Amino acid sequence: TVNTYAMRGFRILSLAYRPLLEIQPNLEDRREEIEDQLIYIGFVAILDPPREGVKEAINQCHEAGIEVIMVTGDSAPTARAISKQISIIREKSEKVVDASEFAKNIETADLDQIKVFSRAIPKNKQSILQRYQSEGKIVAMTGDGVNDAPALKQADIGVAMGVRGTDVARDAADLVLLDDNFATIVAAAREGRRQFDNLRKFVRYLLSSNAGEVIAIFATIV
């Protein structure tokens, strides 16, 4: 049943409890002891659908040659379902990889077919970024939490959420999204490419138009 919900894109939260005879001091220091031998109650299936327009934005990224990778703490079935909904995974050969397992084989792992990292913890994000950067890739990362700050610093372009993002994440990032919308990143990339293309055309124009003058002056000197 859990896998059935997970494969439909639901996030699964298990609930359990353990009765304590009395409140004792230093409970925080005894977390592992208290969380042992819990009594299972059940699970909650939470549906958090992708925002409108994300799928179209990711398709535009594919068309523009921008590779989109998802790093999530969700289970593999949930991550696969959501990534298919928004077109991150488009082919059967593209993989969902457990981030902890990836960390064990990080130097030899093949990045070409990995599109989603599941069960990722904060420390995994920075190592994943470093692996992509070691391949010579320019890496941008989005994040909103305190735990995302090291990875935002590590990325070539750190993008923090301006609405739900923490102050730590915003300070660590290079860019802040005021609307927390992935489609805004795509629009910014499109505008940046347009300006870069215009700048390149302008430089070529100056070089070609002034080439005659340079040659004439050089010839005169000779």
Topology at a glance:
Blueprint: H1 2-7, E1 11-17, H2 31-34, E2 39-46, H3 54-63, E3 70-71, H4 76-85, E4 95-98, H5 99-104, E5 114-118, H6 122-134, E6 140-143, H7 149-154, E7 157-161, H8 167-172, E8 175-177, H9 182-221
Parallel strand pairs: 3-5, 4-5, 6-7, 7-8
Antiparallel strand pairs: 1-2
How would you describe the overall organization of this protein?
The model has no long low-confidence stretch (mean pLDDT 89). Helix content is 45%, strand content 17%. With 222 residues, the chain is of the alpha/beta class. A three-stranded parallel sheet has the order 3-5-4. A three-stranded parallel sheet has the order 6-7-8. It has nine helices and eight strands. 22% of the residues are buried. It has helices spanning 2-7, 31-34, 54-63, 76-85, 99-104, 122-134, 149-154, 167-172, 182-221, and strands at residues 11-17, 39-46, 70-71, 95-98, 114-118, 140-143, 157-161, 175-177. It is elongated and about 95 Å long. Strand 6, helix 7 (149-154) and strand 7 form a beta-alpha-beta unit.
